[in-house]
Amino acid sequence: MVTRGATQQSSAPLNRRVVLDVIRRQGEISRKDIIDRVGLSPQTVANITQDLEAIGLIVSKRLRGEKARGQPPMAFMLNPAGGDSIGISLEPHRAYGALVNLVGDVLLRREIEIDVRDQRRTLAAMVALVRELAERASASERLWGVGVAMPGPFDVPAMSFVGPTAFEGWTDLSIFEDLEAATGLPIYYNIDSVAGAIGESLSGVAQGFESFFYLHLGVGLGGTLMVDKAAYRGARGNATEIGHIPIVPGGKPCYCGARGCLERYVSLHSLSEAITGDPDVELSHPELLALLERGDPRLDAWRAEAAACLRAAVAIIENMLDPETIVIGGSAPRILVEQLVAEALPLAPSVRTDASDTPRIILSEWQEDSSILGAAVLPIHERLSPRLDVLTPVEERAGIEVERLLGRKPRRINRF
């Protein structure tokens, strides 16, 4: 499905977003193919691409060997120097940060130890990360903003504020208002699984799918259903919280108050606890890789139990939601995820058993960095998405910026 442009003059901001989105998804596309996909007139597309190129969001090249009346045959692609974005992924004991350009290349990456129970120090750490990464912003000096990904769910005290996979003591999220005030940059935050799913949809392995389920395997376990390229939120913004589905009757006590939740078996925290016997210890990636290299029997036992739970979870997701595929990303080492998925085979029968040739499970190419890159995508998604649900007054400043860059007087109606 391709988003179609609108013909009304007041829809100019939406049309620009639609054209930019088509260029981004195709990688390189001719003006003629843009016109065919978005349903706008040749002159409108020519004006939009001229504007987008003038402000440095896209670059063009002449197509050789093609002749056409009117506008010369051109192909367009995103400009890597069209602006940068900062992504921060927060976990209970670590913060990861990256500076990412418009096409998803990581320009600089940082990792620091934190204790999220101390919000004051966590804020100071994030401010330091943003300032260091912002110093390396591209020559365009356009920084779209800062995206922050963190474990969910939000505003559910029984699940949000207790246990080693949640941010204990975070009774509100005003820390992000403080981060915006301290850095002077727009801050966008979301649940890590939502950020990862958006990132995979925009720039990752799920670009070709309209609907898919994203499974975020990190310290905890999260999930997000993408429908028509948008994250399904549910009534309170916490839909598809897969980690807290009770999957083992009478199983391990979970920090949410239930027993046998999926996260207690399929997560890096559950692995660390299985290895150390201490629920307060989180193994680092180097420690996990060392265990994998020497074939620790405790890891083998965890993997067998986790694979059985993952096998059941895949069948539940497919039978309930019937996604095109399930994408697994997160901060877990890729080799660990590969082994876990291999051990979960063969998958249990479901409505997908005899479906298309699309694999039932696809691993993120960003494995270990998918949360950071997903976070970095948030500002770009919120400010450049063609979806009408993000054309809100909060984003009006993006339209003003475009008008300024084009040398025009800003119009309040014109949201980019």
UniProtKB/TrEMBL annotation:
Coiled-coil annotated spans: none
Annotated SUPFAM superfamilies: Actin-like ATPase domain, Winged helix' DNA-binding domain
One Pfam match: HTH_24
Gene3D superfamilies in UniProt: 3.30.420.40, Winged helix-like DNA-binding domain superfamily/Winged helix DNA-binding domain
Domain of life: Bacteria
InterPro entries (UniProt xref): ATPase_NBD, ROK, WH-like_DNA-bd_sf, WH_DNA-bd_sf
Family, per entry: Belongs to the ROK (NagC/XylR) family.
PANTHER family, sorted: BIFUNCTIONAL UDP-N-ACETYLGLUCOSAMINE 2-EPIMERASE_N-ACETYLMANNOSAMINE KINASE, ROK (REPRESSOR, ORF, KINASE) FAMILY
Protein name per the record: Transcriptional regulator
Organism whose genome encodes this protein: Caulobacter mirabilis
